Amino acid sequence: MPRMAEIDEYDYELPVELIAQEPLPCRTDARLMVVDRARGTYEHRRICDLPEILRSGDCLAFNDTQVVPARLVGRRERTGGRWQGLFLGAGPQGDWAVLGKTRGKLEAGERIVLADGDGRDVLNLVVLAKLDGGRWLVRPEASEPWPELLERAGHVPLPPYIRGGQSRPADRGNYQTVFARHPGAVAAPTAGLHFTPQLLEQLACGGVDQTHVTLHVGIGTFRPVTAERLEDHPMHSEWARIETTVAQRLAACRRGGGRIVAVGTTVVRTLESAIAARGDWGGWEGETNLFIRPPYQFLAIDALLTNFHLPKSTLLVLVRTFGGDELLKRAYSEAIRERYRFFSYGDAMLIT
């Protein structure tokens, strides 16, 4: 009987100063550790070197989700107490599901007054009901579609390890990929943050195809694994989609001898979920709670470009499952020795 993996095996010590608090002025200047699974080696390059590293006939698969300004800041109208929340999604009747945090006991019927980045009151939310997992059902007292309301009242939902989650105006652009098209994510698919229109054009001129899938990154991406054994972790669910034409291009890439290069763990989960659901390459849409952990056998990808991930996270488990446990442990230790920048605004790794 195979040994059950434990989450403590995915812990590591990271000096706090290596957690990137700002992106680099030029996205393509980020460092890139290239890990070769077949040779068991790694080398130090930069994102701008990708046109030299990737081959004609390869296909990059990106996540084109768009991060919405989902962080909410305001006060309780009745008590004046501070309230903080995170938009999780909107229902067909216009109600919102939000995570909320405040002092005292929040009750149904209360109003929450949201403030914009300048501290001006811009939107009221009426509390309808308490849900499970710290969530609340609320209704905005405005008739515009939810993306427009969030643009007015929301803030960039930076993860807590970046400035304690406190965003600045520049984060509106910095924490968004250049190919973002479909609003719905509460966290960025951070591997995609390294790409610029100029780099994408260079890659295309070199014969590297580019496709897009969509996975709306949810709040679960911030939650650490708390179960001791990986098999006991309840994986969060996220909505994803791959168009039929995209699946056909990826299949053609494979038939032609090219590599499917997933840009980010969200793309991996989308492609692997689609193949698992269908049994072949084709269009697919639905919720996925796929937790990729040993001894998972990958069906859809040949290489992975990804950032450096938090200790004891499902993302680190996925990356080490793909790259090889011992090789990736050595690579992370090397990245720390070489002072790579970690997490969302940090450097990247290409596993081939």
How many domains? 2
**Would you identify the regions where 5 or more consecutive residues have pLDDT less than 50?**
none
CATH superfamily grouping of the largest domain: QueA-like
CATH class category of the largest domain: Alpha Beta
Strand order of the largest sheet: 2-1-17-16-14-3-12-13-15
Q: N-to-C SSE series?
A: EEHEEEEEEEEHHEHEEHEHEEHHE
Based on helices, strands and strand pairing, what is the structural class? alpha/beta
Q: How would a crystallographer describe the biggest sheet?
A: 9 strands, mixed
| Name given to the CATH architecture of the largest domain | 3-Layer(aba) Sandwich
The CA-CA distance between the termini, in Å, is 30 Å
List the helices and strands and how they pair.
Elements: E1 31-36, E2 41-46, H1 50-53, E3 59-63, E4 65-67, E5 71-76, E6 82-90, E7 96-102, E8 111-115, E9 121-130, E10 135-140, H2 146-153, H3 171-174, E11 182-185, H4 197-205, E12 209-215, E13 238-242, H5 244-255, E14 260-263, H6 265-278, E15 284-288, E16 303-307, H7 314-323, H8 325-337, E17 348-351
Parallel strand pairs: 1-17, 3-12, 3-14, 4-11, 14-16
Antiparallel strand pairs: 1-2, 5-6, 5-8, 6-7, 7-10, 8-9, 9-10, 12-13, 13-15, 16-17
How would you describe this structure to a colleague?
With 352 residues, the chain is of the alpha/beta class. It has two domains: 7-67 and 172-351, QueA-like; 71-155, Thrombin, subunit H (Beta Barrel), CATH 2.40.10. It has helices at 50-53, 146-153, 171-174, 197-205, 244-255, 265-278, 314-323, 325-337, and strands spanning 31-36, 41-46, 59-63, 65-67, 71-76, 82-90, 96-102, 111-115, 121-130, 135-140, 182-185, 209-215, 238-242, 260-263, 284-288, 303-307, 348-351. Strand 8 (111-115) and strand 9 (121-130) form a beta hairpin. It starts with 30 loop residues before the first strand and ends with a strand.
